[in-house]
Specification:
single chain; 182 residues; alpha+beta; Rieske Iron-sulfur Protein; three-stranded antiparallel beta sheet; 4 helices
């Protein structure tokens, strides 16, 4: 009879011990997660950075042939309302002449509006061509004076050391006269 009582007591102690192991492990896991969460959460972008994640632009004040520069995520973004001549030049370019071939229709959502990140793809300079007094390069787009890259009226590299076209940021038309970048 003592053997049966000892086995019953041993089984009871075993399940208590197992419960204590599971409870201690669970408490340690939850405690560790609670201790680590603030460290992980602080890596999320702050509210001021999230506010800059997208920006809306009213296009009504931009005249045909005019360009503006806005700042999005700390980068200059060129918005140009192209003339019919600029659109025609961009649309009728032989792709075999381009170092980074891309159709104009792939770079714009509406032919009249061109939206580009205004950073030269060679060394990160800001090309000239936004103001009427700036040189626009041989193809009427933008010119980077640092190393001589020329871009056409679609922001495609035509000459110089730049390896790629000016990039197109993610944007969409919210209305006929407003775009959201980002």
């Amino acid at each position: 009879m003592t053997t049966l009582a000892a086995d019953k007591n041993h089984t009871s102690n075993g399940s208590r011990r197992d419960f204590l192991y599971v409870a201690t492990g669970t408490a340690a896991t939850v405690g560790s997660a609670l201790a680590v969460w603030p460290l992980i959460d602080q890596m999320n972008p702050s509210e001021d950075v999230l506010a800059l994640a997208s920006t809306e632009i009213d296009l009504t004040s931009i005249a045909i042939g005019q360009a503006i520069t806005i700042v999005w995520r700390g980068k200059p973004v060129f918005v140009r309302r192209r003339t019919s001549e600029e659109i025609a030049l961009a649309a009728h370019t032989d792709l075999e002449e381009l170092p980074d071939p891309q159709l104009d229709s792939e770079r714009v959502q509406r032919a009249e509006w061109l939206v580009l990140v205004g950073i030269c793809t060679h060394l990160g300079c800001i090309p000239l061509g936004q103001k009427g007094t700036h040189p626009r390069g041989e193809w009427g787009g933008w010119f980077c004076p640092c190393h001589g890259s020329h871009y056409d009226t679609s922001g495609r590299v035509r000459k110089g050391p730049a390896p790629q076209n000016l990039s197109v940021p993610p944007y969409k038309f919210i209305t006929d006269t407003t775009i959201r970048i980002g």
